[in-house]
TrEMBL record:
Domain Conserved hypothetical protein CHP02679 N terminus per the UniProt entry, residue ranges: 37-246
Ranges of residues in domain DUF2399: 269-424
Taxonomic lineage: Bacteria, Bacillati, Bacillota, Bacilli, Bacillales
Name the UniProt record assigns to this protein: TIGR02679 family protein
Transmembrane regions listed in the UniProt entry: none
Any coiled-coil regions, as ranges: none
InterPro entries reported for this sequence: CHP02679, CHP02679_N, DUF2399, Spo11/TopoVI_A_sf
Pfam families reported for this sequence: DUF2399 (PF09664), DUF3323 (PF11796)
Amino acid sequence: MLEQKVADAVEFFRGEPGFHRLFLLMKKKYQSLGRIGGTVKLDGFSFEEKEALGAFFGKDFHQESTPSVSLKMFAEQLEKTRFAGIPLVTLLENYFGEDITTNQEKRETDRKKKEEFFQNLIHQYPEQARLLSFIAESAPQNRFIHIAYSQDREHLETVLKNVCTALQYLPKKGDYERLSIFSQKVLKDPHAFDLHTFQGKVFLHVLQFYSDQDYDLSSVEEVNELLQSFGILREDILNFVTCAGILTETEQGIHSVFASAVKTNTVLNVPLREILKLKRAYPAKGQTVFVVENSGVFSALLDLFPDAFPPLICTNGQFKLASLMLIDLIIQEGCQIYYSGDFDPEGLKMAQRLKERNQEHIHLWHFQLEDYLASSPEVLLSDDRVAKLETVTIEELQPIKEKMREIKKAGYQEEILKKLYEDICRHMWD
């Protein structure tokens, strides 16, 4: 009997103007609150719709400045009609022909489905249980993965399975493999883990999880370092370091190319491929190596030493992995590194990064306030670039940072070339 009454009610309300729009609003309100309550406004309802609703409620909605209907009011009015005994939720569900779940119920259902999704993966890859449990957490760093879950759960499942499989193929400690070759071996696709793809980003995210160091994944060079720490090389030919006055050794002994370069005053551009073969690196003379950011400064300094090049390295801008690995080898010999870079936000961040890499053996070279002023800073910095100074935190760079923030101008190491030359001379003569 109730079933027939509900069917009659649905037929009635579908035939009356205004109720469809009202029912949509009441459904939305019920889903939001999780109960019969709240009020819906009749904004935008036509004259005819308000007339039909007014006849049902026995009131004139035209006289109200902000006409509205509460869900309780509708339920009470329904009890005064021939449809008494029909719960409002039952009426709405039959009207729309679907079960109406509240937002809270939907969230709980979604939560359980997501939990089941990750539990199934953990069951398939028990050795990565800790990783998958971490990814399942709604932490900020996992947000892009959870967005992917909501957009295409099946695709995310495939990606996570591929990445979990890839972990089983990582090179053994001390061995290296190029990213494209690694990708081909794991998934028969050399571009499977290209870093601009979603799968490549998840791969990096996973390596970060297993890493002992926190890398900035927005930095190309730190990404390269992260990959290298797991034996993966992104680029080992175009990733190079420029040097002079440096001797190196492999497992076979002194490297003849470096030795010949020192003997003939020759500059070397050494790709990462060759750096990886080295076991030792040290200055041809003394215990100090000078490092500069710009190739022009590097070459100009060498011009001033025509008879014997000093131990000098050029990073060619942002640190490449080849530069960092060569510097690390030199530090392992107990040598001191003196680094000079540009006086701009990016240059200060580079100096900070290198200093933090090794506090004991790396010295910031002419990074005092007087050096910044001596560089005759004239190039105006945009507000966006000045904002980057916020990440410069080491005490040694604060005077330059504050002055740069004040005048918003950049200076460059070409202007202090004479100072750099004089320092190198002092070390060579000592």
